[in-house]
Design a protein that fits this description.
Layout: E1 8-19, E2 25-49, E3 52-64, E4 74-78, E5 81-85, E6 90-92, E7 96-105
Antiparallel strand pairs: 1-2, 1-4, 2-3, 3-7, 4-5, 5-7, 6-7
Length: about 110
């Protein structure tokens, strides 16, 4: 199965949580792997809540299959954009996987 042309460079980042001396938790992100991907816009929406405006854009990201990538502990950098994985990556054929991702812009 041909999943399409992978001509966008993405970076999968892994989340690390660390505890400081007084019990606070800090979140940080580090590069896990850099891959080529095909990215297609899925949809977008606007939400307004109490004087705040947030735009959510959905994307389908197709890349090479890697069973160690999960939505729980990873996110995608695409240039200067941060994409949050929604649900688990789905296997596509023998060599690829597709991830539904959300980009959130505005107050959060």
């Amino acid at each position: 199965m041909n999943a399409g042309r992978k001509d966008e460079e993405i970076t999968i980042q892994a989340r690390t949580l660390s505890t400081d001396r007084i019990g606070g938790v800090a979140e940080s992100w580090a590069t896990y792997v850099t891959l080529w991907a095909m990215i297609k816009g899925a949809s977008g929406s606007d939400a307004r809540k109490a004087d705040a405006h947030e735009t959510v854009n959905l994307f389908e990201v197709t890349t090479y299959y890697d069973s160690t990538i999960t939505a729980e502990g990873h996110r995608i950098l695409w240039g200067d954009r941060v994409l949050e994985m929604i649900g688990s990556p789905r296997r596509l054929g023998r060599a690829d996987m597709v991830m539904t991702c959300a980009e959130r812009r505005g107050p959060q």
